[in-house]
Amino acid sequence: MRNRSFRIRALSAALAADIRRTRRDAYGNVLQTRDAEGGEPCRVCLRDARAGEPLLLFSYASVPAPRPYHNVGPIFIHAEACPAYEDGGGATPEQLTRRLLSLHVHDADGEMVTADVVAGAELDATVEQMFARADAAYILVHNARPGCFACRIERARPELRPEL
Fold first, then answer.
1. How much is the pTM?
2. How far is it, in rounded angstroms, from Cα 53 to Cα 65?
3. pLDDT at site 55
């Protein structure tokens, strides 16, 4: 298997630890633990929850304010600490490959430069094509149907960006 030219970034383990400790999100929501039905995506380990696993649902902004693309939406994490996803450039997490995904490509200033909706099985090839754009700095991935944030994708080596 070849290494990808990009890295998948899960939700920060430090942010997740803070959410678990305080049981509050940045928007004042007091969080409750709920048992997974099965299949809910944890944004820290990038694995789907098994039925009965305790989860926290909270609001998260993949683009923080004050930006025109600021948005807040619900996401799940495991209620108990889970191993943070570390992208070594190998296989894309199965959680992403089984979903319909919305990809928002942003430039270095945070402006959206293009977007697309793709089957998760096509994620790697589509990301490679999107990063062929010289102005593409990072990609925000959302689950297309519910619209919730999934992960951020960055170039493995930003200095290798194509020339403008």
1. 0.91
2. 32
3. 98
